[in-house]
Design goal:
mainly alpha; about 325 residues; two-stranded antiparallel sheet; homodimer
């Protein structure tokens, strides 16, 4: 069994090549550009780890891992257009560098090339792989749409927010693990447990993301602490605060959401403290983590094989940046 | 054997249903909207006709036809965003009606649902169908990128324009016919002839499109005659005129391209007449039509089976609007 870091280095080396034709360079250089910006490659490595639970990592697993990373980058390129984001991981976004039309098309071809990767695998597995991949791709689009819809709504329920976050971010991690398991020859029950493990880790990860943005150590947290608050972003924290605050706190929060005063972050954080939002978020994250671990335990695979996945889960959820 | 019109009515009836989940309606209603606007359904019906050359039209052929029509509409939705087009077939474009972000996502899910349709077919054929479909999808994106690139270049060669048009519009018709043939069980040589038939008909169709825009009968032509001239659009006609015009004509043409004077259309048409552009275009169109018919003749299928395809080709190329 390999560790996340070993597989990540291995994947990075294999993935670091041209994934597109040379011509027209005006299109394909834009697609290649985002792939080189990197990232932690958590999703494709999850494919490899999902596979290695059940068998050796083979070419089919690498093909699916490529497809997942291409899909993930396709969604980043299109999301960045929608969000009008100038930067990603410190680099210019594709539409900033190459223009919106080229970024749109570059995203499109990345999705097509992802499907081309899936078409490389053993024919006996193509249908189940394509089925899960396409279902997940639709869900990720649904999550992005719901996220945009929620921006226009004053009040979002925790249930609706959870559903949106699950679609937008968790199902892709879940599907990556399950796709690896399919390639590895896992039975349906094991596939399902692995999917649920990934889904719940994904939700816990997002809670942590929201948490760090508000309560992170500025020295360790790479971004500006309080960025979500300044952007009036709906987060687990804000939604919970709005649901438990008393009338006075609720009024103040709603007023703060409509201003950009200098003390906005500190005043929102004060309300979060009064409402014990940090404690609630920690418990919620713990709950999802525990559900994930339960599914990992239920996997009919020896404990020694599962160790690296549990380590990955703990690593993802104990980061401070 | 069925006629184009019979198969078109049949396809229309089957295709007229919800192709997407109900929720979130903010996303999927936008995707469904463009499908209802209609069109001639030439490409999906070509799948059915390509299949019927070799066997009965079965569920796999309908699934591929659905995928082709979904893909075509995906490309229209994204192209309309890039072209900032307010209308399509007299209706508001998706981004005009639902906003650019939703249109972008709606296009994305349509592409995914197209692949879901392909995943319905017999496993023994999935790989070759996916291979051709994805290759074609990339080419259509390449064609759109080249079209945008050409807008920024003063002079485009006929060869480059032809390549762009082939990618942007002809390969999808060609692939539709070949995909139908694959489903129908055709051998590779027959598949190839059918592809070339469709590709050359597609090119001839585009020459006719450019021709009608300049020389069409205003009574029969639905759009404003001279629209391409007013928009300085690179067309077969303009590219040829620029390549054969004498220095004086060339200077006048280049000047006209930089103005929007009232007599722009009539003055460009005068140069086209002096350069015999109409005659050249008619001959060029005829040449591609003849190449197409030659490939149809080479098909190892009885002539009676081919009759409807030849009729379709003549119908597409003899229209006046």
């Amino acid at each position: 069994m390999h560790s996340f870091l070993e597989l990540s280095a291995d994947f990075e080396k294999r993935f670091d090549k041209r994934h597109f034709p040379v011509h027209p360079a005006t299109l394909y250089d834009a697609a290649q550009y985002i792939l080189r910006i990197g990232g932690k490659r958590v999703r494709p490595v999850s494919v490899l780890m999902g596979c290695e639970l059940f068998s050796e990592i083979n070419d089919d697993a690498y093909a699916v891992a490529n497809a997942i990373e291409l899909f993930h980058n396709f969604s980043l390129v299109h999301d960045d257009i929608m969000d009008k984001a100038p930067l990603r991981r410190g680099f210019e976004t594709v539409h900033t560098k190459y223009g919106e039309s080229t970024a749109l098309l570059a995203g499109d071809v990345m999705l097509v090339v992802a499907y081309e990767q899936l078409n490389q695998i053993d024919t006996t597995k193509i249908q189940s792989v394509l089925r899960l991949f396409s279902k997940t791709a639709k869900e990720v689009c649904e999550g992005q749409q719901l996220d945009m819809d929620f921006e226009k709504i004053a009040m979002v329920s925790l249930e609706d927010y959870l559903n949106m976050i699950t679609l937008k971010t968790s199902v892709l991690l879940a599907a990556s693990l399950q796709l690896g398991a399919i390639i590895g020859g896992a039975g349906e029950a094991n596939q399902k447990h692995l999917y649920e493990f990934g889904k719940n880790i994904g939700i816990a990860f997002q809670i942590q993301d929201d948490y760090l943005d508000a309560f992170g150590d500025p020295e360790k947290f790479g971004k500006q602490v309080g960025g979500d608050i300044l952007a009036n972003k709906k987060t687990f924290l804000l939604i919970h605060a709005l649901s438990v605050a008393n009338d006075k706190q609720k009024e103040e929060l709603n007023q703060l959401l409509q201003t950009n005063s200098e003390d906005k972050v500190s005043r929102v954080l004060k309300i979060y403290a009064d409402c014990k939002v940090a404690e609630w978020a920690s418990t919620l994250k713990e709950n999802y983590f525990n559900i994930a671990i339960k599914h990992l335990e239920e996997l009919a695979v020896s404990n020694s094989r599962k160790a690296e996945l549990e380590k990955l889960a703990r690593y993802l959820l104990q980061r401070e940046s």
